[in-house]
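Think of the structure tokens as a kind of shorthand, similar to the way a musician reads notation: each symbol stands for something richer, in this case the local conformation of the backbone. In the example below we present two proteins back to back. Begin with the first one, reading the sequence and then the tokens, and try to describe in your own words what changes along the chain.
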Amino acid sequence: MNWLRRLSRRYLTTGGRILLGAAAASAVAGLDPFRTQLGGLFVVIGSLTVITLILGLLTRPRLSGQWSAPIRAVAGGRFRLTVRVLNQGRRTAYDFEAYLDRLPEGLSHGKEAPESRHDLLEPGAAHELRIPLWAWRRGAYDLGPVYVGSTYPLGLLRLGRKLAGQRRVLVTPPIHPIAQLELASGLRYQPGGVPLASQTGESMEFVGVREYRHGDSLRKLHWKLWARRGEPVVREYSQEYFSRVGVILDTFKPTDLEPAVEVAASIAAYLERRDAIVDFFAAGETVYTLSAGRHVGALQSILDVLACVTACKQPPYARLEAQLARMLAGLSAVVVVTFALNPQREDFLERLRVHGAPLKVIVIGPGPCPPEAVRVNPEEMPACLGRL
């Protein structure tokens, strides 16, 4: 039935589908010997359809074009596909429109918009149409192809051509404002601070010297002071110390993963505004590990991962710990977005506490939680996120 629905949407307008439904109803009703007059309605509708088809084929315009889609959209919002249509024929094109006959689950057409249709296009002329779409759910969506067709003369049938190609749109989770996030964190020494600052274009201020540590760059050695002291020392820059926060998204058997994803996105956005480096961790089908520095696009990289993360059926904590082990010593604080406690979660949180980094636990929804945790009610998301 899906293929029949796609064909009807591709070749029939809304009025055409209503007329087709009326024809089917009249045909069935006409089988009743006491209602044979309804069979005449079927004949009239069928004749009208044939006439429309013949006229449409005779006046069918030669249309071509290209289309594009935004790289990203936000769940709960609207975005548009842009279609540039060119009339390559010798006749004027009337009543043409752009449309998609197939949409992934999570996207919808919504109401038909005037911007996706145009009344008249002269030979050799071009016009830009826009197809509005609503994104109801985050995810990665492959769209295409787009169809361009004319509904002339009676607005019942749509005849045109396909514009090939596919475009991928990442629908990222919405971000809610956070006024304050209380973290018992400070600055931590980052051995990669100097290269990171040079990559992000930030200037570094010389603040003093310190003892040489294994792995320090030789270019940072202070040769004159080394000769005077008799032991190696290196120059120290203010940009070697960062506030570096780990954000862990628990994806194990959630009642509803979406609120947790939105909370993680909002926390990442808050930390990005405070110039913190964010290390993001999550485990779905694969383990996601992303270190986002202080550069343009850092937050967007985290949102791209959050657009695709899925719930997992097996406890992911062992895999997460393997990724966390080499980074925990450099973290100023760790924020865990999780759900109601169970034995696996309790063990995981306890092992994080042992490593010494200040831990903040945010529990989504009802159920048992640690005494120091902050609970977020999904139904009161904006109010709960005002202050964490």
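Once you have a description of the first chain, move to the second and do the same.
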Amino acid sequence: MAALGITLALLVWLVTLLFISIWKQIHSSWNLPPGPFPLPIIGNVLQVDLKDIPKSFARLAERFGPVFTLYLGTRRVVVLYGYKAVKEVLLNRKNEFSGRGKIPAFHLYEQKGIIFNNGPTWKDIRRFSLTTLRDYGMGKQGNEERIQREAHFLLEELRKTRGQPFDPTFLVGCAPFNVIAHILFNRRFNYDDKKCLRLMSMFNANFYLLSTPWLQLYNNFSDYLHYLPGSHRKVIANASEIKAYTLEMAKEHLQSLDPSSPRDFTDCMLMEMEKHSGESGYTLENVAVTLADLFFAGTETTSTTLRYGLLILMKYPEIEEKLHKEIDRVIGPSRIPAVKDRLEMPYMDAVVHEIQRFIDLIPSNLPHEATQDTMLQGYVIPKGTVVIPTLDSLLYDDQEFPDPEQFKPEHFLDGNGKFKYSDYFKPFSAGEQGSRAAPQPEMVSSPLIALCVSATSQLCTTSQLSSSLISTHNTNQVCSPIQRGWVTFSQ
């Protein structure tokens, strides 16, 4: 009888939970954007393909319109699809949607740094970071010299392979890694340095794992899945080890800090910490997370783009040949290119932009959050609602980019062969949240990619695979090339 009573009590408890869940969803859905009806507890997870979330969003947008509601578990999410809706949130009303939606896999970084910080200090830290990065040459000639120097090292390392097949995954990533490391820590690593390779391995693993179905599931059901085995444990462990490294760097810098002569970004951040001594948002832990944010975002977005760029050039040799001709005409066979050369190289500029458009690096963007109750296109968006402005809906808009599934540098060329920019080109998001996700893409990624593409294009790339077997496209919240293989560089 006792066992029967316990069973009945559990059933009553479960039924009560279901009714409460249904009541909450119905009660809170008044005048929200339309969307599929959610099931209790799991929400609309069964209606989203975790292996291809962007395609699921596109299908739902066709049915419910450019602004629609989903429940991922019990978390209410409003998805924005298309230029008009995305622009309204990211640019026109950025302050109302400048919160960061939770990403449980990075809970160690919550309320600290730039990317995952919803606390009162994040805007100040972001503003300080942008100003300091510019002071250290980001977007200026000083950074161009830094990038040119690293492009030279990359070219020399590629030449050392002497035409023998090798896996370029980490070698190509060393260039952006060293550019960011020099700005943050005033350090440069050899391309075979164990610490460098270890950090890049963790950056690469986390960026890839974030795109897997398990991490998509974990980030929406972390309360239930946290203690289970799974790849989320590796992401959390990697994030912890990366933060431990940047904390070690911060402590080393603190011991030798000379406020009258700051050496790098870390010194400046420590000086800012001392200026705000006693304030909860300015601690050594916060400095470490800020450094980890910048190191990861600045390195991995660029190195992933470079790896995709290599795959694309190997898959489309006719584009590589045309690029070679423009480089030979403007730069010649031996000079390291400069950012100013881009003005005379519209085809290369178009290739660089088309690479970033085509690979669709962060198709579903990082989650935003409404900071107040507000209205959007006639719908209520309650405070705390997670908002996802989909970037792939801009980058793959077939009106702006005809045949968007095809890699065509002509998407960024006018009828006279001159480079043309598109307002739909938002590979790293936009607005305040876009800047806090990675403050440096506009200042580092584009010129670095251009220089490295130019430098590596002074050599011929050859894949050990047939071009028909080279996969250059991926799907999900972030995109990382899962294909690794042997490539040959020759003069």
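Compare your description with these statements about the second chain. The two ends are 84 Å apart (CA to CA).
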